[in-house]
């Protein structure tokens, strides 16, 4: 009996096996284990590359749909799916679902409820960009700025922690990043004049471990780059796209967004740490180094785009780098350990 290519791929990659909790080692090896997708970006380095070869240029035309599953959502889908033990996990703004990868049958659905007025402070789309997995739990954020953990077998809520306040402009749409038992999340809302931050939560309990503000208060490092008034309280610096992680350096790399308000005359100075690439310690949130792409940004050139890790040979020297195709039209290449700028090439016009 003839079998379709897609069926063969699914059988090889998603045959049910005994369910095992995801370990820190599983997350570190996610990029080299294509039978599962446990992290946003298909690996800590966010290269989004799969070495699977069953589908190629010659046979891709033979692909046919086997099943479909509707999320019944007309507000936009941006969530990256996760895959583990033959189950696909999907998120959007009002639900999380688990679907059998071979049949499309829904295994469980967990609804997300939030106050209707929350959508008044959501910039650029009512959506969710995905989840994270670790130790038998699926972690996600919600529009009303909660971080929650769900049991991957049942979809039941394990814990729920309030992170921000939509009334202050805080909303969450990004996928968390789990590193060594810490669930890291970012926040959106610079367009509504919030004070941006990154936060880390204990993966088992949901207790906040640390919080790093992307706009420093008076007296904190970087505060001299803001006016000596209360502008810092509403200075922006969102962090709504997921960061990457280098286990060897134990550094998380995360991009930050535009300062607020958009008019730079109201906030003279470089406005750290907006429009920055940050390197942080995942256990403490300590900023080890930063690189600011657009000081005093007047153009809404968010620096949040994905930070891709790679190894390059530059001028005959091997370099471990972090790269970002930024919104100011440049491709930035920085040394991972130090933040030293190695190249900044403009895109073709």
Write down the domain tally.
Answer: 1
- CATH class membership: Mainly Beta
Could you give the order of strands across the largest sheet?
1-2-3-4
Determine the CATH topology. Answer: Methanol Dehydrogenase, Chain A
Query: Strand percentage, roughly?
Result: 25-35%
List the main descriptive attributes of the protein structure presented here:
349 residues; mainly beta; single chain; 4-stranded antiparallel beta sheet; 31% strand; 2 helices; Methanol Dehydrogenase, Chain A
Q: What does this molecule look like?
A:
By secondary structure, this protein is mainly beta. It has one domain: Quinoprotein alcohol dehydrogenase-like superfamily (Methanol Dehydrogenase, Chain A). Helices cover 4% and strands 31% of the residues. It contains two helices and 20 strands. Strands 1-2-3-4 form a four-stranded antiparallel β-sheet, with no helix packed on it. It has a four-stranded antiparallel β-sheet with strand order 5-6-7-8, with no helix packed on it. It has a four-stranded antiparallel β-sheet with strand order 9-10-11-12, with no helix packed on it. Strand 7 (146-151) and strand 8 form a beta hairpin. The radius of gyration is 21 Å and the shape is globular. The termini are far apart. 43% of the residues are buried.
């Amino acid at each position: 009996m003839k079998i379709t290519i897609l069926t063969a791929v699914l059988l090889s990659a998603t045959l049910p096996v005994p369910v095992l909790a995801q370990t820190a080692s599983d997350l570190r090896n996610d990029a080299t284990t294509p039978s599962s997708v446990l992290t946003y970006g298909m690996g800590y380095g966010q290269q989004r590359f799969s070495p699977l070869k069953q589908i190629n240029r010659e046979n891709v035309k033979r692909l046919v749909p086997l099943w479909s599953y509707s999320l019944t959502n007309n507000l936009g889908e941006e969530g990256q799916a996760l895959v583990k033990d033959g189950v696909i996990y999907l998120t959007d703004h009002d639900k999380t679902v688990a679907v059998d990868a071979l049949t499309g049958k829904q295994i469980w659905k967990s609804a997300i409820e939030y106050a209707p007025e929350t959508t008044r402070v959501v910039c650029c789309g009512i959506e969710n960009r995905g989840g994270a997995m670790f130790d038998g739990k699926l972690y996600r954020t919600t529009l009303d700025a909660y971080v929650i953990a769900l049991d991957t077998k049942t979809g039941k809520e394990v814990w729920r922690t309030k992170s921000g306040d939509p009334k202050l402009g805080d909303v969450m749409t990004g996928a968390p990043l789990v590193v060594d038992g810490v669930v890291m999340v970012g926040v959106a809302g610079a367009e509504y004049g919030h004070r941006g931050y990154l936060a880390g939560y204990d993966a088992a309990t949901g207790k906040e471990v640390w919080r790093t503000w992307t706009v420093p208060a008076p007296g904190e490092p970087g505060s001299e780059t803001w006016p000596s008034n209360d502008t810092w309280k509403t200075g922006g610096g969102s962090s709504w796209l997921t960061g990457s992680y280098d286990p060897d350096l134990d550094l998380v790399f995360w991009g930050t967004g535009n300062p607020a308000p958009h008019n730079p005359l109201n906030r003279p100075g470089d406005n750290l740490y907006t429009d920055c690439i940050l390197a942080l310690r995942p256990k403490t949130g300590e900023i080890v180094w930063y690189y600011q792409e657009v000081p005093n940004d007047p153009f809404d050139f968010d620096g949040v785009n994905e930070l891709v890790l790679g190894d390059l040979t530059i001028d005959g020297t091997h370099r471990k780098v972090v790269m970002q195709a930024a919104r100011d039209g440049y491709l930035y290449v920085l040394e991972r350990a130090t933040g030293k700028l190695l190249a900044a090439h403009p895109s073709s016009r």
